[in-house]
Design brief:
By secondary structure, the chain is α/β, with parallel strands linked by helices. It has 2 domains: 246 residues, Type I PLP-dependent aspartate aminotransferase-like (Major domain) (Aspartate Aminotransferase, domain 2); 134 residues, Aspartate Aminotransferase, domain 1, CATH 3.90.1150. Helices cover 35% and strands 15% of the residues. It has 12 helices and 11 strands. It has a 7-stranded mixed beta sheet with strand order 1-7-6-5-4-2-3, sandwiched between helices. A 4-stranded antiparallel beta sheet has the order 8-9-11-10, covered by helices on one side. Helix 3 packs parallel to helix 8 and helix 11 packs antiparallel against helix 12. The model has no long low-confidence stretch (mean pLDDT 93).
């Protein structure tokens, strides 16, 4: 886009060019594997050839990647088949056997599994760090530290990292920084503007927005890092599906209003939960008493609809009764879609630097687009079952 429009306008127009498709407003689904060359010279030199093979790129992936690169303020983007794919590919692009990786301890659990099952097996030393370490990260940096990985806010408990402070220490030692920006959806925070080298995001969540897309992307800060990123994605065969790209571009148009609506409802629910005797603690960045509020206000432009709360009760059957009494919060593992969900956070025991010692069950809510009063009434009736159980 030639002008730096405001976000709502950008989201309507990014990633489409009607002139490419005879005036058709939305770029159509492109199903492509083989791409034809006009002659041998073009095949050998690739001069003038926009696309070479379907898994390397095609018109629809180009539109999506251009949109994400502009939204995130980066150089260029690569798209992948799942939300986890750009994470693993980015790590593989910048790490090798013998390297040291500093990994945020509040990460999305599959990222941890990739570190434990994949990176360690290939000879990468993985060390987890306290997400609230800030500039103190310098004390963990070794001569062989190659990558520092961030995720802010963190999964389940939403720790807000001091990204600029960590990035300053990384740049002083020429260390690559990669940040999972899924919570912000590429919209509420722009890591590259804060000095991060690679921003990764699961478009499965708020960008797709309808619980029917598996898609991810990574945006690089410059040409050198983009080429490393692209090479890793191609080598690992991580091309996205065409229908997913189409649906993600469609979801992009309404992402801001959906996210704002979910955030408004989530804040009301978080405040309501704070007043419940059954609840020990509520984790939501927009609450004034959230530990990361100051950093969140400094760096982010808004909140989303994901929060967690810790029940005081430890009795498994009472907790089961509460969860299964809910009608509008079915159990589901994702978030960012139009409907509300609940997920028990059963993987907190994996944390290493700040071990999880809380009693009671931690439950994560994805707050969707339902009427917030219906959601509150549903939670209230489930608590009645909980208390009578």
């Amino acid at each position: 886009m030639t002008k730096n429009y405001r976000e709502k306008t950008k989201l309507v127009h990014l990633g489409r060019d009607p002139e490419d498709y005879y005036g058709i407003m939305n770029p159509p689904i492109v199903r492509a594997s083989t791409i034809q060359y006009k002659d041998l010279e073009t095949f050998e030199t690739k001069k003038g050839q926009k696309f070479t093979y379907g898994n390397v790129g095609h018109p629809l992936s180009r539109h999506f990647e251009d949109a994400m690169a502009e939204l995130e303020g980066g150089y260029r983007c690569v798209s992948s088949s799942t939300g986890l794919a750009p994470i693993t590919a980015s790590l593989m692009a910048f790490l090798k056997a013998g390297d040291h990786l500093l990994m945020c301890d509040s990460i999305y659990p599959p990222t941890r599994f990739a570190c434990e099952r994949l990176l360690k097996r290939f000879g990468v030393e993985v060390e987890y760090y306290d997400p609230l370490i800030g500039a103190g990260i310098k004390d963990l940096i070794k001569d062989n530290t190659a990558v520092i990985y961030l995720e802010s806010p963190g999964s389940a408990t939403f720790e807000v990292q001091d990204v600029p402070a960590i990035v300053r220490e990384a740049k002083a030692k020429d260390i690559i920084t990669i940040m999972d920006n899924t919570w912000a959806g590429g919209l509420l925070y722009r890591p590259i503007e804060h000095g991060v080298n690679i921003s990764v995001c699961a478009a499965t969540k708020y960008i797709g927005g309808h619980a029917d897309v598996n898609l991810g992307y990574a945006v690089a800060d410059n040409e050198v890092n983009y080429k490393k990123l692209k090479r890793a994605h191609v080598d690992m065969g991580m091309c996205p599906g065409s229908e997913e790209l189409f649906l993600a571009l469609r979801g992009l148009r309404t992402m801001k209003m959906r996210m704002e609506q979910s955030a408004e409802s989530a804040l009301k629910i978080a405040q309501w939960l704070q007043g419940r005797d059954e609840v020990q603690k509520v984790y939501y960045v927009a609450l004034p008493d959230h530990p990361g509020q100051a950093l969140w206000k400094r760096d982010f432009s808004g909140a989303n609809g994901v929060l967690s709360f810790l029940l005081k009760e430890t009795d498994k059957e009472k907790i089961r009764g509460f969860i299964e009494a809910l009608e509008l919060f079915p159990i589901g593992s994702s978030w960012g879609g139009y409907m509300s969900l609940l997920q028990p956070q059963t993987e907190m025991g994996y944390r290493k630097t700040v071990p999880w010692k809380e009693e009671g069950m931690l439950l994560r809510l994805q707050v969707g687009l339902e009427d917030v009063d219906d959601l509150l009434e549903d939670l209230d009736q489930a608590f009645q079952v909980f208390n009578n159980g």
